[in-house]
## 1
Amino acid sequence: MPIDQHLLAVFTVTTIIAMITPGPDMLFVLGCGMRGGARAGLLATAGVATSEAVHIAVAAAGLAALFAAVPVAFTVVRVVGAAYLIYLGVQMLRSRKGVPGDDPLVGSGMSNRKAFISGLTTNLLNPKMVTFTIAFLPQFIDPALGNVWMQFAILGAILIALEFVVDGTVGVLAGRIGTWLRRRQTARRRIDVTTGGIFIGLGVKLAVER
């Protein structure tokens, strides 16, 4: 397998933790599921996953070519990416418990088609998602193993699969999970703090390693 097994394990665990943290994608899928039903929640997830596949392909193509042409670029991207993960962790630790008006659960019904298109476009046009993809994936790439594009493809496939499983489950169980997320602000805060600490620790660890 053209990928470091240790890095793959760390990537998988970190991705799972990041995915189960209530964020914009999860809340969007949640809102679609509550407004349009389980099918709308699944299609919204499919839209988000499709846009993420585009982000990964673009990042992989550009970064793989850059690493091949300028080897030192890998170190630069990795360090900058690690710094960005630390920044995200700090932001999570400082996040507000609840922001009025940010709840996507309010609204009328949503068609299946609209759910997919909305999930695709909102995530595809979100520059933060592109930045996160470029910062996150290279942390788990080892150019010394070769086949950088293949490593990107494997990690990207895992990321998309986990996103579909987690957010898809949220969409299907939108009613019950929606109630939980609205009422359990303390639990959401604890998840943010835990995930923020993990991102900071991961960023520091990856910045000083290799």
## 2
Amino acid sequence: MRTEEEQVAAIKSWWKENGKSLVLTVAVVLAGVFGWKAWQQKQANDAEAASIIYQNLVQAVAVSVQQGAADDVTTANHLGQQLKNDYDGSEYAKLGSMLLARIAVDQKNYDAAMKELNWVLENEPSQEMTSVILMRKAQVYLAQGKPEEGLAELNKVSDEAFKAAALELSGDLQLAKGDKSAARKAYEQALLANSDSGSRQLLTIKLDDLAAEQEG
């Protein structure tokens, strides 16, 4: 067995050879830990800030929709752009862009609405949000009198949860095209896929209107 002096000498020798690298390793680990905590804190702060801006945006949009106030529209556009510029990776930025598209549609500024909806698609939305955006694009095309383009967007909607709504919108687009037979078929399929009583009632009205037109 080593004597106490030999053990001390061995420790000193090991520390001389490995001490610097050990200190460096500890420093790197600590820097990583504190860096991770700082990053987490920044993420939390950014999320809170984005949330506040988004809440203000929702309020501005609500007022602009109800009252049509130009100042509130300007405020909403400013807040939406701030979200996109400062927190572009957040869900709040995507939701904000969707609200800006809503305002643009209300103002019949369809090009601006398309720009906002396309921005969301370019920023990795969830599958559900993607389906919503595609359907809103189809609605904008319908408002523009471009049913073919709208149908092309609807063909990309694969989420089963939106099947009934997509079929109804497809019927609206087919009707805008002048293809009443295709519109009727889409409405009938939507009726079969839809369990919501209010939506079913509206679909029934649309089918009855089509039948009346064809009889007339």
## 3
Amino acid sequence: MTETIRVLLVDDDEDDFIITRDIISDIPARTYLLEWASSFGAALEKIALKQHDVYLVDYRLGAHDGLELITQALASGAEAPFILLTGQSDRETDERAMRLGASDFLIKGRLTPFDLERSIRYSIEHANNLLEIQQLNAGLEQRVADRTQELARAITQLEETNRSLFEAQQEIKKALQKEKDLNELKSRFVTIASHEFRTPLSTVLSSASLIGKYKLTEEDDKRQKHVNRIKSAVHNLTGILNDFLSLSRIEEGKIYNVPTAFDLVPFIEEIIDEMQGYIKVGQQIHYRHEGQPSIVTLDKQLLKNIVLNLLSNASKYSAEGKEIMITTQVDAQQAMVQVQDQGIGIPEADQAHLFTPFFRAHNAVNYEGTGLGLNIVKRYVDIMNGTLTYTSQQNEGTTFTVQFHKTPSL
């Protein structure tokens, strides 16, 4: 049995309510319950009850407009998504609606059951994704509470053991700083996650909508363009989720170093093949191995994550047509992996903060990403008892070198 989706239409024109009711009744395979609020005030009262899954809001509402309603409703704690309805296409209104919190923008005169069903479905999915982010935030808040309890226990222990006042003050300062750092981490996490999720989700939403408009064979190129945009956006979302999940697992101590013996050369070649679908147009990855043999004993999954991350960064921060060089070296003392690009480089003033969580160099703020990648790479390398070094010059490129010193078991 399909779940009933409760929809509230906010429109001061009863004819529009009847038209919308007819359109929504033609949507197949789903059950909808459409309710109507005919005024700005009545709409706010119904929205405050939080009894609907999605709101359809007309742009014109007498002395008010739909954007005012969306702004006030969100400020009052509304959680379900808002879809703005207008009588004509207006890109400025569309963009303003998205900035204020609307999930989509539809034109009433062109509305079809397919467009409406697609918009409602994507808006609800978008809202569910944001809810997951909020739940992650709640988990971080619980960790803050746990750290606060740790602080209280530390103070009690200090009092019970009668330590000197100076020692007690030092311990408290450290705990408070840790608390402050965790709060900052939580705030940055929520801000970055919300922004980074919204951009690719909006891309998927708009491209999926446009694909439905291209129905002729000669429009295949346009369809493929938007399919590629959707694939790229989904890839970005996957990368963001992987970064957050990796950071969470590292923080919880769930990442372990499990070395196995394998041949480094085909291992790297396989990673390069995997990267071909993600590098920019005209970019080429050149691989060179030095030393014989090429057998190493390392954690394959951690090493793969390290190399994929470094190659992805090399592609992201390099222009189309640039070359990326990866070099491996194995000798009696060590195993080494080096990735060199011809990208934008890292400004000298930013290099001291390069491995800080969520840090973005000032020349990289216009590139997609969470600022977690290099922090995760550094922590993976540390777990594997390796070293990570780099050299970089702005506008000329960056080289990252990962080294693992051999033990008698290698």
## 4
Amino acid sequence: MENELSKAERTRQFILETTAGIFNKKGYAGTSLSDLTEATGLTKGSIYGNFKNKEEVAAAVFDYNLDKVRKQVQQHIQKATSYHDKLMVYAQVYHTFNKEKSFPVGGCPILNTAVEADDTNLILKERAAGAIVRWKRSIENLINSGIKAGEFRPGIDTNEISLAMIALIEGGIMIAKVTGHPSSLDTVLKTVGELVSGLKQ
């Protein structure tokens, strides 16, 4: 039984890995069942034997792509020695998001999913919203820890700063992507860096 379960899990993982870039680039509506069968080499029955429907595949793919981004960010945060540098990781990591092979194909899954699923898919919209809430909480925790450590000045509005950082990063990615000018993202991330540096005592 354990071997059967592990085989099922391997199949699910294979489906996620193989279709992650397709969903992230084409979106839920733009991805067809034939896209999934062609990419994986599996039959419709095999795919839907592991996932209830296309929506469930898309939700699992979002989690898979988001996890890739989270791991990349966390690895750099753990290496940083100051809270300033930990916050700067967001600017540095997203600066290389379109160059790093460890990042999801197609760009930021939060931005891609949020734009498409705004009013069309509640499950994916909630996934994207949850990701932003967790991201915001992570930034707030780093700022609060920096204040307690005496590294950042007291009285900082963590809600305002965290939302501004997220809005700048996601907005910068969107502008760079839609205009085809990566330098636009560089400019925006420079502003993120200035925002973080302004938190110091």
